Amino acid sequence: MRHLRTTLTAAFVVAALLFVLVEHLGTGTVMSDSMKPTFSKGALLITRQTPPDDLRIGDVVTIQNDAGETIAHRVYLIDRAHNRVALKGDANATPDSQTYALNAAPRVLTYPTWIPFLAGHLMAVPCVGGLLHAVYRTKAGLLVLGLLGLGALGWVLAPLRRRHPEGQEDEVTSSDEEDTEPLAA
């Protein structure tokens, strides 16, 4: 049973990593409540780099503004003639004051249709992005993250260690026996 748990856990981790690599997925952290109620500050967004021709009005993208901050807003207007895009947060009354160059942008993904209760919803994990953002900003946070990673690795690999039931010793094999004569009584 332990080997099954380890095998399944390892298979899941490998499959998830391969999916991320093959699909070229990324993440973004929501830093304000400008997209409420769609998602709140601290949410972790799952994104994929999207070519400019594939962007559509209503898509949610993450773009760096003139102040150097990464924002996640909905595409409000696309001006292909001037290669510009306007964005607007769902909670904002008006679009952003600046427009952005229409380049490839990380678009927030939606859940696939084969997941009935989530189909069409944006891929956002509440609170996780804020936690990861706080962890990555400090050396202590990175240390804690590393220790948690090592602990998770140990948990996955622990069942692979050979264990013996209590009170049982290893069996002696013929190579361990000495060539001795039986003692005469």
Describe the 3D structure.
This protein has helices spanning 2-23, 128-136, 139-157; strands at 25-29, 44-50, 60-64, 70-79, 84-88, 100-101, 105-108, 124-125. It has a domain at 24-127: Umud Fragment, subunit A. Strands 1, 2, 7 and 8 form a four-stranded antiparallel sheet that branches. Strands 3-4-5-6 form a four-stranded antiparallel sheet, with no helix packed on it. It has 185 residues and is an alpha+beta fold.
Please provide a brief summary of the model.
With 185 residues, the protein is an alpha+beta fold.
What are the SSEs and their pairings?
Blueprint: H1 2-23, E1 25-29, E2 44-50, E3 60-64, E4 70-79, E5 84-88, E6 100-101, E7 105-108, E8 124-125, H2 128-136, H3 139-157
Antiparallel strand pairs: 1-2, 2-7, 2-8, 3-4, 4-5, 5-6
* Gross geometry: elongated
Rg over CA atoms: 27 Å
- What is the C-level CATH assignment of the domain at 24-127? Mainly Beta
Average of pLDDT = 77
CATH architecture type of the domain at 24-127: Ribbon
> Cα distance, first to last residue?
50 Å
Strand content: 15-25%
Mind summarizing the main beta sheet? 4 strands, antiparallel
Name of the CATH superfamily of the domain at 24-127: Umud Fragment, subunit A
Tags for this model:
Umud Fragment, subunit A, elongated, four-stranded antiparallel sheet, alpha+beta, 185 residues, 8 strands
